[in-house]
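A favour, since you know our structure tokens better than I do. Would you make up a two-line entry for one protein for me to read? Write everything out right here, beneath this request.
=====
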Amino acid sequence: MKEYEAEVLATLLDIKYNSTTDLYKNLKNSSFSRGSKREKKLFNFFGLNPPEDEEFDVPIQEKSEGQYMLFEHQRLAVRNVISQLNVEPSRVLLHMPTGSGKTRTTMNVICEHLRSFEPTVIVWLATSEELCEQAIEEFKRSWSYLGNRCVNVYRYWGKHEVNIKEINDGFIVAGFNKIYNLINKSEGVSSIGKLASKTTFIVMDEAHQAIAPSYKMVLDLLYVGGGNKKLLGLSATPGRTWNDIDEDEKLANFFAKKKVRLEVKGYDNPIEYLTDNGYLAEVNFRQLFHDSEVLTGKDLEDLSTSIDIPKKTLEKLGQDKQRNLKILNEAEKLLKKHQRILIFAPSVYNAELLSVLLRLRGFHANFITGKTMETDRKRIIEDFKNDDMTSKVLCNFGVLTTGFDAPKTSGAIIARPTLSLVLYSQMVGRAIRGQRAGGNQEAEIVTLIDNELPGFGGVSEYFQNWEDVW
């Protein structure tokens, strides 16, 4: 701008100047209010119109959803767990019903810990391959949204091998059998000791087994050192037995009688809330009675000294033709109303037999037992879980009580009698996922009751069974 132009502009804008002041500096340092007369004079001087304010349609309020959200009752459980873990001794059992999101809730606690400590190792212990893989997948999902750094994830069960001494930071899922067998190998205890020295958080899935000798040994070795080390147990059934209070108290004492139970305002029992709000299905429990002729007086006598139904007794029941006929007829009835049905058989032989007989009757049926090859097991489970509309039944013995997640399962026949309320509740839990948790509005559980053998009732009953020992 030429000097005379600058003088005209300064006069127009009432900017003071004289021979001793820097005219250009005064112009440069001047300010203008949006919409004022001075602003209009400034723009008119250059033959321009003042800019109009742009209007943006910006909402005053809008929602921002998290990508790994919890329900309100789960968030309360997270806060209570963290609070309890911060009080010595740092041992807590999280008590949540099957299907209410124990694993997802726990991952929020774990991610919070990983963000707070660096480097650190978290060890997740589980009793089955299904539970182990479930933990890995859920952690990867949760950390992808909640994580603050890249961490390593380790598999240590079955055929998966890891040099656990070299793990310095990350999340390791270990099978109990794998890590227990390591104890008996040369330098095994020292390897676990090295891992323990870098571990600050231990999670035990199915924690009602924590005081069994082999499990307790593993936990004690990993917990060596104490200090800020935390131990969190997870269970839908915080007890060891149905009617042995001494065993149940041992479990409660192991966790320092610190238990965080799922709580919902306005409900004495959270099962009722979870059902009312669609997290658990409305369950129709039915009992199918059978007077078995294959059990002897000696079989029934042996029950009084057994922790659970003896294997030989279960095998006899699996060979009872009339019993099997009742199971098959009941399965046909369920298949008319449900697309995915589980049958919990009393023996390996029985699971195979029921599956073959159902196929001969024209139904889509498979079986899984502890003898099923891993590749076959994965194929059969994926076939059962897929979305096709064919009604399917999966017979099993001893492998689908934990870690098996097929939310669309809405029918179950519990043909395996048990003295264990824990085992019974685990079998029931496979078929009661509600619509809001990806499952069904209604479910049907048929429990076969043999003469002289026990039977259990509904879900609410077993959830509250052990409260007195805690």
Q: What stands out?
A: The longest helix spans residues 129-146. The chain has a mean pLDDT of 88. DSSP finds 18 helices and 13 strands in the chain. The longest strand covers residues 282-290.
